[in-house]
Every structure is written in C-alpha cells, then in structure tokens.
C-alpha cells in the first residue's frame, strides 16, 4: 500500500485519519509533502475536500456518526496492515473524543497522539477552560454557565447585551438539531436568550451552554495559535497567525477563512503556560481575540486537536506531521520550533478577502504577501491536480463568494 519514504529510517509508516473535511485533506497533504505517503481516510462518505484525490484512500463506513463503526473499521485496518506503523489522526472535537474514549482498544495498534480522557473532559468544556485560565492569569471573557437536563433554573445574566452564547462542549452539541441552530449565537436581548434556552430544551439538549461578554472588534482582531506537546511534555511546535476573515455561515461561524502567520511571543507565552500547567499532550489550537479596548489577548477556547485550518503551519515551513512522527515513531527529542515565516493562508479568493480587510496597513501586508507569492490554499496541491479536483476547488472558491454575499455582505464592528 505504501512504501517507506526517505527519512522514515526503514519504518513502514501509514497515516490513518478520521473525517472528510478540508482539515482532513490538509493533514493528508502534510503527510504526503513530508514523506510521499498516501493516507487512509475513514468516514461515512468521501466528501468534496477528500474526493477524487490521489493522496487519499477511502474507507467508507455505513454510518460515519457511529463511534462503534468507526472503531471497528480502524481495528480492521490494523489487522490488515499489521506490519506497518499506524499513526491515527482526527480533527474534530467529537472524533477526538471517540479516539480518546477507545484508546485502550486502539493503542496496541496505533500511535494515538492525543491528550488523556480526564484532561480532554476538562479543557473541551468552555466553562472549565475559562476557570483554568482564571487560575493561570490568562484573560478570558467573563463567562456564565447554563446547565440543561437536570432541572437547573435559568442562570441569572448580569452581562451587558449583546452577548455571546455557545455550547460548552461542541462534541455534546454535535447531533442536537433545532430550527435556527448555530455554532455561535449573538444574543441581542433577554427575549432572544429565553428563546434559545427553550429551543435547546425542546431539542433534548442535556449539556451546558456558556454565556459570555461580547469582545468588540471585527474578524481582524482574532488570532490563532497551534501547538504540539510531545510525549515527554516538551512544547516542540508553536505557530501563531493573525486572522483576517472568518466564515459566517451558521454552522461554520468562527472558523478562520484567511490569516497570515507571524510570531507573537506575548500571546505564545500564555499558550505555553496553559499547556505546561495542565500537563497537555499532543496538538492544541487556541482561539484568541485582541480586545481593542485594552490591547489584551482574550483566550476563547482551546481545541484538543490541530485545527481545521492546520495547513497554515505547514505552509509556514513547519510541517506538523514531522513532529508527530519524530516523537512517536522515531522516539526523537525534537529541537523546539517557533514559526516566524509569514505566509498568507486563505480558502477564499484574494479579491474577496481584500474587500473585508478595511485597515490600510493590514491590506498592504496582504497585498505584499500576494505579490511575493507567499500564499497557500490547502486544497491547491500541484501533486494532486486531477481535472475533477481542480473543478471542485474552483467551485469551492465560487461558493465562498456566494456564502459571503448571503451571510456577511459587509464588515461589522463585532464580526457578527
């Protein structure tokens, strides 16, 4: 299936990735760039980002939302490829939870480079994340918690409207369905909050929601930090990015659509503190916003994975898959890397992006990176350019234009 590549020291390596979105393709691309390897992708369907790809082999299960089916297929793959070193990756919160909860079954056959179940439960919950940050003197928006399913009364909200409401755990919210569902809600009044609580109860939601103060500023105030903590507890990779534009569809709100990499030691120091003090292992991706009122970094959450837009790290010259392989396959103590190279990462057309970057200095930086051809789109890979893939990438760019016209036609002061 795969041949040992240069740098693998004779170890037959096989990447196996759960999921089928753009972030999964980015992981497969990073493995291919680093080692020339084809990744096995396990999902319920071969969705557009991974379809018709020469660097992906598909393992389709009947129900991609059934943890048991996914784990059973992973065990079948392991039995079939018993002579290969299998590295397991997942890139959504609920799939990370599936892997971590079935670690005892999977770890005899796979490298499982994820944090412990106890820590996953703590940091995946935005309410608990805020508590940890408070203890570590890391600034977060003021946070209130509403609990569902146990008869708890509505939380008393003493925050100024508008405010933000979102699920404390995205994995708990994954399969909840109701009219008007969004990833993140901007709540303008007490009546809107009352409606949301009723809709969640009506949908049978039994988790927790957080209500937070709204930190002002448009998408360009957002930042992203990606890190890798090796099996010894050393933080061997740090990369920060300045977000320029986020997605604005109800299901994708808050996912970066464009950003450029840069080094920000003050922000990275806070991420380091969180990772070190919590005993973190594996990849982490922090969502941060610069508060324009104070200039302070406000940490929103940490994703227990590398993140949907992970290719910005590879594009900046620090392929994250090398850190995993060197750590878990080669057993190497890697010299820590803090990325400094500036690269523009965008999944939207550059002309569209520049419509939303109103700050002249930022716009000049973007144009400079475009002129220098220091740009990256995760799906545009010259070694994976079949006509059907090229058609899909073009259609995806056109669709981005349509989505922004519909959901975010003009820049707002809050990004909503």
Ends apart, CA distance between termini: 47 Å
Alpha carbon gyration radius? 21 Å
CATH superfamily of the largest domain: ATP-grasp fold, B domain
How many separate domains make up the residues? 3
Which regions are unreliable across 5 or more consecutive residues at pLDDT < 50?
1-7
Structure, briefly:
By secondary structure, the chain is α/β, with parallel strands linked by helices.
Describe this structure in words.
The chain has 14 helices and 17 strands. The protein has helices at residues 22-35, 67-80, 93-101, 103-106, 117-123, 126-135, 170-173, 190-202, 265-278, 311-315, 320-328, 350-356, 360-371, 387-407, and strands at residues 13-18, 39-43, 56-60, 85-90, 110-111, 143-147, 163-167, 185-187, 208-213, 222-229, 235-246, 256-262, 282-290, 297-303, 337-338, 344-346, 375-376. The longest helix is centred in the C-terminal third of the chain and has 21 residues, at 387-407. The termini are far apart. Helix 1 links the parallel strand 1 and strand 2 (39-43). Strands 10, 11, 12, 13, 14, 15, 16 and 17 form an 8-stranded mixed β-sheet that branches. The chain has a 5-stranded parallel β-sheet with strand order 3-2-1-4-5, with helices on both faces. Strands 6-9-7-8 form a 4-stranded antiparallel β-sheet, sandwiched between helices. Mean pLDDT is 94; it is low at 1-7. It is an alpha/beta fold and 416 residues long. It has 3 domains: 13-112, Rossmann fold, CATH 3.40.50.20; 142-213, Dna Ligase, domain 1; 219-407, 2-Layer Sandwich (D-amino Acid Aminotransferase, Chain A, domain 1). Pfam families: CPSase_L_D2 (PF02786). Residues 130-329 form the ATP-grasp domain. This is ATP-grasp domain-containing protein. Keywords: ATP-binding, Nucleotide-binding. It comes from Cellulomonas rhizosphaerae.
């Amino acid at each position: 299936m795969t041949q040992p590549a240069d740098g693998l020291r004779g170890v037959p390596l096989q990447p196996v990735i759960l999921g089928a979105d753009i972030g999964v393709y980015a992981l497969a691309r990073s493995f291919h760039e680093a080692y020339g390897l084809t990744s096995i992708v396990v999902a319920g369907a071969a969705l557009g980002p991974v379809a018709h790809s020469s660097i992906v082999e598909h393992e389709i299960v009947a129900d991609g939302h059934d943890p048991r089916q996914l784990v059973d297929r992973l065990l079948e793959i392991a039995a079939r490829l018993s002579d290969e070193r299998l590295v397991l990756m997942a890139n959504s919160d609920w799939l990370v939870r599936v892997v971590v909860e079935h670690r005892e079954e999977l770890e005899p056959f796979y490298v499982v480079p994820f944090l412990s179940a106890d820590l996953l439960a703590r940091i995946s919950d935005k309410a608990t994340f805020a508590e940890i940050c408070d203890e570590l003197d890391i600034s977060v928006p003021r946070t209130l918690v509403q609990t569902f399913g146990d008869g708890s009364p509505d939380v008393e909200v003493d925050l100024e409207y508008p405010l933000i409401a979102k699920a404390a755990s995205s994995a708990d919210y994954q399969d909840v369905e109701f009219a008007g569902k969004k990833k993140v809600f901007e709540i303008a009044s007490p009546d809107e909050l009352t409606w949301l609580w009723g809709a969640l109860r009506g949908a049978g939601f039994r988790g927790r929601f957080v209500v937070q103060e709204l930190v002002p500023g448009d998408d360009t105030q957002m930042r992203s930090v990606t890190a890798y903590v090796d099996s010894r507890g050393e933080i061997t990779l740090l990369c920060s990015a300045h977000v320029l534009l986020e997605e604005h569809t109800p299901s994708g709100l808050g996912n970066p659509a464009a950003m450029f990499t840069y080094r920000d030691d003050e922000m990275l120091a806070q991420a380091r503190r969180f990772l070190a003090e919590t005993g973190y292992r594996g990849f982490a991706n922090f969502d941060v916003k610069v508060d324009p009122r104070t200039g302070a970094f406000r940490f929103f959450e940490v994703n227990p994975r590398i993140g949907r837009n992970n290719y910005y790290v590879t594009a900046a010259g620090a392929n994250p898959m090398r850190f995993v392989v060197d750590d878990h396959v080669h057993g190497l103590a890697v010299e820590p890397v803090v990325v400094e190279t500036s690269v523009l990462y965008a999944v939207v057309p550059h002309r569209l992006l520049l419509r939303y970057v109103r700050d002249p200095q930022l716009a000049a930086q973007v144009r400079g990176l475009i002129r220098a051809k220091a740009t990256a789109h995760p799906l545009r890979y010259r070694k994976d350019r079949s006509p059907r893939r090229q058609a899909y990438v073009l259609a995806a760019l056109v669709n981005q234009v349509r989505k922004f016209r519909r959901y975010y036609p003009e820049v707002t002061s809050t990004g909503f």
